[in-house]
Amino acid sequence: MAIQIPTRLLDGAVLAFLKQDDLYGYALTQNVQKIFSISESTIYPVLRRLKKNNCLTTYDEPYQGRNRRYYHITDEGIRLLNTIQDEWQDFSARVNQVLGGQNDQSN
Amino acid sequence: MTKVIDDYISELEQNLADLPEKDREDVVEFYHEFLLDGDFIRRSTIEAELGTPKQLAINILADYSSKDDSVSPRKETPKSNLKASWYILLGICAAPIGIPLVLAILFVLFFILAVFFGLFFTIIAFLFKFFVGGGLNFLKSLSLLFTNNWPVGCLYLGKSLICIGIILLLLPFIIKLGKILIAKCTQFMRNLGKNILKKNYFQTSTGKNTDKEK
Fold first, then answer.
1. Which residues on chain B are in Cβ contact (under 8 Å) with A40?
2. B65, B98, B117: which is the final residue of a domain?
3. What is the extent of the structural domain holding B36?
């Protein structure tokens, strides 16, 4: 894919996954990577930024003698997710108007 | 098996020495957990995913440096500012935007710095001349004071005192100007870093995709 993924959409994708379930760093990275082929080192800055803006909280759970840090979406995070979803609906509708295939038939 | 991971993580930690302790612990813990969960066994696979510890550290530091709203607010000193600029520059070089852009940025940056510091040093040189001139006048006046020409000596003495006075008045201002210059340059770098790094940070790796397709 030659199109760059805006930070905003990556934030949205992370929040969307966390809305379904609390996840730990590796699982979350895997999920995001199934959709966008981003490098592994991009997720941490996203999580850090979202946490700083109170969009998510963290808690540790023991796993095989060590801790796993889980990320949990907050109400603030859900609000941001809704905003990003609306923005994306609007934006994608506009892009489809120009680039979507349906236009060719109607004209 | 975990030794490979431990080695990688401790190297990463060493390269992050400039990060505040709390931030460093957080990021190191994240990648430690990441590598353990990913069952990475070989160093080569880790580096294929995350890059070398040094590359990863540069990415992290650039990310921290280009955000002015850092988690733990640090005091801005000329030294820390210059350091931040350096990390951002390294980060830009590491970003996948191609050498020509880096060269262009460096070129522009060089010119801006040259203009700024050119001005700065001109002022310093001017003051220095003033200072030396003042000192010479002072010596001259001392030798003249004890001769018949003592009124001329007084004149020189006065002149030299005025020079020294002006320098003392201007000195704090000059130092402040220098600090402001460095702060401004850093701000410029931060904005540059924000624009360039942010846009490219989440780029889908075109290279990776074509590799897979082949």
1. 34, 49-50
2. B65
3. 1-65
